Amino acid sequence: MKLDLNIQPLSSWIKTSSEPLLIAGPCSAETEDQLVATAHLLAKTGKVSALRAGIWKPRTRPGEFEGIGSIGLEWLKRAKAETGLPTTVEVATGKHVEEALKAGVDILWVGARSTVNPFTVQEIADALRGVDVPVMVKNPVNPDLSLWIGALERINNAGITKLAAIHRGFSSYEKTAFRNEPMWDIAINLKTLAPELPLICDPSHISGNRDLIGYISQKALDLDMQGLMIESHIDPSVAWTDAKQQVTPAALAELIDHLTLRKPEIRSSDLKDKLADLRNQIDKIDDLVIQKMAERMQIVEQIGNYKKANNITILQVNRWDEILGKGIKYGKALKLSEEFTEKLLELIHAESIRKQTEIMNKDAAGQAAEKLTHA
Ligand code: PEP
Ligand code: MN
Question: Ligand 1 site: residues with CB under 6 angstroms?
Fold first, then answer.
């Protein structure tokens, strides 16, 4: 069953400067200089279609920086006047909506912590009644598609037809490589239920770590999402919020240049394809294998430090025989060939030995160098 939403196409409310559609800007507006300078650099890349900045920040714990507040609206105005970039901010109350509209903000977005709460969403929707402004709704923090749909419906029922959804990943108790688990299936389900609803991915909040942003961005494009929202700061190392997941405007431009844009027709039919579905399952498993390898290597590092502290050799033949024997037996029971399991374990083992050797040698090299300088 399809959702009954009244939606206008993305092209009716945002001019895409270059493909893919990119909304970028700092997690938070911190100072007028930081915001305006970041906006200039972003505009100069020619790849950004709208400037984002949080001015009312929903923080997990009290006492953290909670946003610069309404003064940030003046800074956004200036950034827009000087760069021509349309602006977008997060709104979490009816008052935020009124203030943002009064200040001429072009696009509003509802944050993940608001989407979870129908009271909040309804308050925002009521403030939007009778206004013609585009609104983007982030998925709720928890993996609940109905809450996401409910929020989109509330805003749409208030008469907002320039509507988009933002996929920013979901909280999970289990610690993984991502700050927020992508759970792509939920976004794909939304797309299937509302094919006309533009879907934008927020790789920054999914990743929580700038190194993963490119990977998540490519995946989002391959799933036929229509755009990306990426946090960009003039100097991420000193950002007041979400420092680890922001990139400089120059790094952002490079990241975008490395993305492969696939043809929409192929992408759309891919989604429906059985083959695409199977590949999707494989990708998930590959992600998991890599993630588990990273976890394994972290433990190897602890073992390496322990062996070093206690003067134990890196290689203990008995232990390796035991791993190999057990693994091959287990693999056989799961219908993997002996040759494959053996090769796989050997590869993992070789990397573990390499890592431990690195640990053993680290200080040894340092000591040798010290001896030389004191000689
Ligand atoms: C943000 O975009 O800075 C933000 C607070 O995001 P989210 O609502 O996805 O946590
Ligand atoms: Mn953020």
Answer: 27, 54, 111-113, 138, 168, 205
